[in-house]
Amino acid sequence: DGGITQSPKYLFRKEGQNVTLSCEQNLNHDAMYWYRQDPGQGLRLIYYSQIVNDFQKGDIAEGYSVSREKKESFPLTVTSAQKNPTAFYLCASSILGQVVEIADTQYFGPGTRLTVL
Amino acid sequence: AQKVTQAQTEISVVEKEDVTLDCVYETRDTTYYLFWYKQPPSGELVFLIRRNSFDEQNEISGRYSWNFQKSTSSFNFTITASQVVDSAVYFCALSVTGNQFYFGTGTSLTVIP
Fold this sequence. Notes:
The structure holds 2 protein chains of 2 kinds. By secondary structure, chain A is mainly beta. Helices cover 0% and strands 48% of the residues of chain A. In chain A, strands 2, 4, 5, 6, 9, 10 and 11 form a 7-stranded mixed beta sheet that branches. In chain A, strands 1-3-8-7 form a 4-stranded antiparallel beta sheet, with no helix packed on it. The relative contact order of chain A is 0.32. Chain B is mainly beta.
């Protein structure tokens, strides 16, 4: 089945540690995205990538890093510089918009819930 | 600047009632997409509908219907004869030039049996 997988589903981190969240898609989508969701809030964009080896910062990129070495994979690293990393992280992918530069429908993975101990 | 407002934070209805979730958007772009997503307790966002700015025709899909009105910058979502399985958080989103989505803060819907 085609879709987006995220692992792990739950992740616990000690303060000062870096952790990497996995996101894989087999939809052959060009664009991939990482969002953060805090309780009772909407989604905030962390990073996005439209092609391999290229990515752009979103609204809250500080304390996070990403890589896009393969079209199917877009891992997110939460570094120790992120002061309040406890949140729900969602990965999404989409085709590039058929109308120039307008993001097409994003499809989401099941999410990773990160807790800092 | 782009913005999506979902003024209803939480709504509770009794099963079989109809419910409308409001979405108001702001953009100066003339070409854009509007979306609705459902987030059940499991957490994954499920895509429901996409509308482009040139298509104001209302859409119906089973018990779901959407009313897009450019004159009021609104894209409202109605669930007819609500069911317990409709309980979720619903997000409205806007996509404009720049390949970014702008999400509202969501409306939490509880359907009481």
